Amino acid sequence: MSDDRSSALKLMTPPASEPITLASAKLFLRVEHNADDEAVTRAITAARQAAEQYLKTALLPQTWDYTIANPCGLSVTLPFGPAQSIASVTLTNEAGTSTVMNAANYRLSVDGFRVIFADAQSIEKLTVRFVAGMA
Predict the structure, then answer these.
(1) First vs last Cα of the chain: how many Å apart?
(2) CA–CA separation, 131 vs 64, rounded Å?
(3) Theoretical Cys-Cys bridge with 127: which of 67, 94, 97, 119, CB 3.0 to 4.6 Å?
(4) What digits encode the pLDDT tens for the residues 76-90?
(5) What gap in Å lies between CA 61 and CA 52, rounded to an integer?
(6) 49, containing H or E segment
(7) Are strands 62-69 and 114-117 parallel, antiparallel or unpaired?
(8) Is residue 86 within 8 Å of 129, Cβ to Cβ?
(9) Distance between CA atoms of residues 67 and 129, nearest Å
């Protein structure tokens, strides 16, 4: 096993909607035509994403995969949250064989930013699929 502690965070399912509607944004901006609807919609999404990135907090429910190489110890800190739930934890060994961990062997911390394991994990790669969001 190498000492590589690299990790990756990947959005799997984006929020179902944005925090404000196109109609609300157009009303605020005093836009009465539809010519700029696409630009306003993109701006709403970009503003939410920028706020989430700055806060390191998901404002709306969304599903993420967090993969960490060579995890060790009894917990893994999630770089983005707070997690509402853990969908799955997948373990991958050096041979590349993946297995899904039994949910009885881990739990989510109260603050939603850590996965706590019943036993220390010593494997090649661990992937946590979780739903994060404040709302």
Answers:
(1) 40
(2) 6
(3) 67
(4) 999 999 999 999 999
(5) 12
(6) helix 37-55
(7) unpaired
(8) yes
(9) 9
pLDDT single digits (tens) 19-69: 999 999 999 999 999 999 999 999 999 999 999 999 999 999 999 999 999
Which residues, 6 or more positions from 81, have their beta carbon under 8 angstroms from its beta carbon? 56, 57, 58, 111, 112, 113, 130, 132
Token readout for 107 is 């739990």
Cis peptide leading into residue 82 (ω within 30°)? yes
Phi, psi (degrees; rounded to nearest 5) at 117: -100, 150
- Say what the pTM is: 0.82
22-29 vs 37-55: helix crossing angle, rounded to 10:
100
Contact indicator for 7, 68 with CB cutoff of 8 Å: yes
